[in-house]
Amino acid sequence: MASPKKSAPPPADAPRRIVTKEEASEQIREVGHKIFTDIIRKNRKPEMKFPIRSLANVKYNPKKGYFEILGKQSTRTLTYNTVKSFAQSMRLLATTKKDLLDKNDIAGKREVYYNSKSWGECRFDEQPESDTLLDDIEGMLGINREQLGYIPEERGGDVTGPLTVIDRNPTSGEVVKINCAKLGSGAWSIPSRVEHLQFESKAKFILVIETASLFQRLVHHRYYEKADCILISMSGVPTRACRRFIRRLADDRRLPVLVFTDGDPYGYCNIYRTLKVGSGQAAHINSFFCVPQAQYLGVTPDDIKTYHLEDATHPLEEVDIKRAKDALKNDPFIRHHKPWQDALNKMLALGVRIEQQAFAKHGLNYVLDTYLPDKLKRRDFLP
Amino acid sequence: MAAKNKTPVEAASAESMARRQRDISVSEFFLKNRHLLGFDNPRKALLTTVKEAVDNALDACEEADIIPEIAVEIRQVGEERFRVEITDNGPGIVRAQIPRIFAKLLYGSKFHRLRMSRGQQGIGISAAGMYGQLTTGTATCILSKVKSARQAHHIEVQIDTRKNTPTVLKDVEIDWHPTFPGLASEKNSQPEPLMSAHGTSVAIEMEAAYVRGRLSVDEYLRQCVIANPHLQLHYRIVLKSPAPAEAGTPSGETPASNATPTPPPTAWVSFARMTRTPPPPPLEIKPHPHGVELGMLMQMLKDTESRSLRSMLSQDFSRVSSAVALAICTQAGLDPKANPTRIANRDSEALFKAINDTKLMRPPTDVLSPIGEELLMAGLQKEIRADFCTAFSRPPTVYRGNPFQIEAGLAYSKPGENEELAADDPVRLLRFANRVPLLYQTGACAISKSIIGVNWKNYGLAQPRGALPLGPMIIVVHIASVWVPFTSESKEAIAHYPEIIREITAALQECGRRLSVFLSRRRRQAEMDRKRNYIELYIPHLAIGLKDILDLSSKEEQSVVTRLRGLLERTHLET
Lengths: 383, 575
Fold this sequence. Notes:
The complex is a heterodimer of chains A (383) and B (575). Chain A is α/β, with parallel strands linked by helices and 383 residues long. Chain A has 2 domains: 21-151, Arc Repressor Mutant, subunit A, CATH 1.10.10.10; 158-378, Dna Topoisomerase Vi A Subunit, Chain: A, domain 2, CATH 3.40.1360. In chain A, 41% of the residues lie in helices and 17% in strands. In chain A, strand 8 (163-168) and strand 9 form a beta hairpin. The two termini of chain A are 32 Å apart. Helices cover 35% and strands 19% of the residues of chain B. In chain B, the strands form 4 sheets. Chain B has an 8-stranded mixed beta sheet. Chain B folds into 4 domains: 26-243 and 264-271, 2-Layer Sandwich (Heat Shock Protein 90), CATH 3.30.565.10; 286-357, Orthogonal Bundle (Helicase, Ruva Protein, domain 3); 373-510, Ribosomal Protein S5, domain 2; 520-573. The longest helix of chain B has 53 residues, at 498-550. At the A-B interface, helix 1 and helix 2 of A face helix 14 and helix 15 of B.
C-alpha cells in the first residue's frame, strides 16, 4: 500500500483544511514544478498521484464519524494512453491557477467545460470528462473545489426556523443579517459557498427533510415554532453546500440533527448515509462534507406497523432490492451499524417501501400533530 | 399411351432409317456447335481468333527456339466486321502444310504428343478461319516465309465444311518479310521497323464486335505478356468509331460516356520483352500407364509398331522397364510375346487392370517449363504498382499420369495507386494454363475453386463465405502440364482434379503466409503512425499547461515538447 510521501499534499482528512487562494495557487505550482523536473532534469516520464475515489477506498471511522479515505492512490504516469488526460489535467490546472485563483474569479463546472473548447484538440468532448478531472484535481491537491474558485451549479437547499444567518455583501463586505423565522411562507436558500457564514440561534435541534412538499407543510403550519427547531429541505441527495451548511450550523450551535426521509433504500443508503458520513465518490473531501451528529428519525420499517401504514406502502422494486443488498454487502457504514442492517433486512422481508407523505392516510396534519412529536418523545432514532 | 387415338405416322423401317444415316463431318459438327470452340458471340469470336493465332505463334517459336515477336492488328472494316491480322517471327510453315493447318479441323502436331504446349487439339486457328468464312464469305489469307527460302508463300484458303478439307483459292510466291514496329526508346523516338527473315502472318476477316474491359483482346494481350516474359508484342486496333464501353466497367478504365472519348490507339502499342532468355524448351514424354484409359490403351495396342506385348509396354509408355512390362504381363496372365493387336481385341481389360494394380514410378516431371517466380513477379509488377509482391512455384507432380506444375503469385497494391483495385472489391484473378491467359468461365475453373477454398482470413484479408477474398490485390495462378485438363474444347476453365486443386491450394497458402507477414508489418506501421500522431497532438498542450503554471519561457516550453516526444516515442513506437 502506498503511503503518502512527505512531499505529497497533506491527506484529505486533515482537519478542516482551509487554505488561502495564494496557498492553493502555490500548491498547483508545486505540482507543475515536480512534473517539469521529472521531464527536464530527471528525463523520466512524469506522473501524478490521485487518491482512489470509491467505496473500496474508504473506511468508516466511528470516532470521527465519517468515511475516511484510505491510502490507496492511483498513479497516472504519462504514457500513450494517458497523454490526452495528462495534457487536459495540465491545462485545467493552469486555468485554475491563472484564471481563478490568481485573478480571484469563480467559475461553474459547465463554464470550465465550455472554456476548454478553446484548447483545440485537447478540449473536453462532454462535461462528465471535465467533471471527473476536476474531482481528480480536488483529490490530488486535497483542497475542495469551492476553495479553488469553482461554484456548484445545483441549488443548496432551503432553510426556515429560529435562525439568523450572518452573511456579507460580496462586493461591499457589509454585514447582512437574515432572520429565517421571518420569511413568511417562503424559505432562505443556502448559497453555494457557506464557509464565511455565521449563525445566531436558540433552536433545540435541526430537522432535515427529504421532500419539498412535506417541508412546505411544516412551514405552512409553522411547525418550527411548535417544536423549536430549524427546518432544512434537501430535495433528494443533499448538495455539498447543503451538507456543509448543516455541518457548520450544527457544529457552531451544538445542535442535534434529525433526518426525515422516505422509508426506502435510497432514502437510507444514499440520502441519509451521504449526509452523515459522505460518499465514496467524494471520499477525499468527506471531512468537509459530512454531518457526523446526524441521526435518523424516520420513516423506519418499524414505523409501518407502529403507525398502521401497511396499506399505504408500495412493493420494493428490483432496483430497491439491489440497492439494499449491495449496501448490506459493501457499504462500510451500514456494515458498521447493526441497527441499520436490521432495518434493511426487515424492509427486504416486508418487501415494501413507504413515503413520507403516507401519514396523510390518518389525516393531512397527522405527521406534525402525532408522528413527529411521538417520535421525538420516544427518541428511538437509528444511528 | 396418350398417342393411342392419334393417326399413327407410318412407322420407320430399318431401311428407311438407313437412308437418312450418313457421315457428319467434324466441320459441320463444329459449325453447329461453335460455342464449344469459343465463337458463341461476336465479341468472343474476336478474342478467340487472336488467342488461337498468338498461341500458335508462341508454340512455333518455342519449338524452334526463337525469341518470339508478334504483331496483332485489328482493323474495323464494317459496322460489325473486323479484319484480324497476326504476324510472328516464327520458323514459318512449309508450303505443303499451310492449307491443312489453316483449313482442316483436328489437324496439328500437338494432339498426339505429351508435351507442354499452348495448343492441343489442332482445331483453333482452322475454326477461326471457318468462322470468318461463314460470317463474311472471305478466305483465310496466309503469308509465310521459312528461313531457307528466298520468297514467301501467299496462300488463301477456305475450308470445305462437308469434307473437312482445305480449298486453296490463291497460291503465289511473293517478296515478303514479317515486319514489326520498332520499339521507341529515349534515344530514338522514331524507331525503324524491324524485319525478320522468317515468320508467318495470318489474316482473317470476320463478323465481330470490339468491347473494352476484362474480357477484351487488350486484356488478353496484357496478360499474355505477363505469362510470356520473353515475348515482345505489338498491338493496334483501328476503329471506325469509338468502341462502346462495357457496362459495369470501373470508370477508370473507360472514358465517361459524354466526354470526348479517347479513340483507341491507332498507333502501335508495344510491350517490350522482360527477358531475352526463352524458357527452357519443354520435353516430350510418352504417356504414363496410370494416366491411360481403357479405350486409349486399346488404340495404343492397335497402333503400336512393336511386335510383342512386352516390348509395346516398355517402348510406348514412360516408366515401364522391360522387367516391369514382364511383371504386368504375368499379373494379367498374358503371354509377353503376344501380338499387341490381338490383345487389344480380347484381353485389354485384363491388361488394363494389371497395369493399374502394378506399382510404377511416377512420370518424369522435369519436362515442364514454368514461368519462374522471378519473372512472374516482374510481370505482376508491370501490371500494377504493388507494395508487396510474391510468387511461389510448387515442385512438379502428377495427376492421372500427367506431370503438372503449379505456380502462384500475388501483388498487393499500393493504397490509392491503382484505381481499378478497390480495397473492398474481390481480388483480381489472372489464370494461366501453359502460359495462355484464361479469361472466360472463371467460376467453373479449378483455380477459382482453390482460391475460394483457401481461408484468406488467416492471412489478413476479408473473405465473404464461398467467395474470392477482398482486397486491392491481384492473384495469379499458372498451371503447366503436358496435358492441361480443360472443361471444354474452348479451353476456358481447368477441370477439378483433386491433385490439381491440392497443389494450387498449397501454392496459394505459401503466398498467403508471406502476404500476412507483410500485412501485419504494415498494420504495425500504421498503428505506430497513428500513435505517433496521437502523441504529437497532445504533447504541445501539456507543455502549454506547464508553461502557464510555471511561467516558462518559449524555449523551455519547446524543450518540454522535445523531451516528451522522445520519452513517449521511445517506449511506444519502438517495439
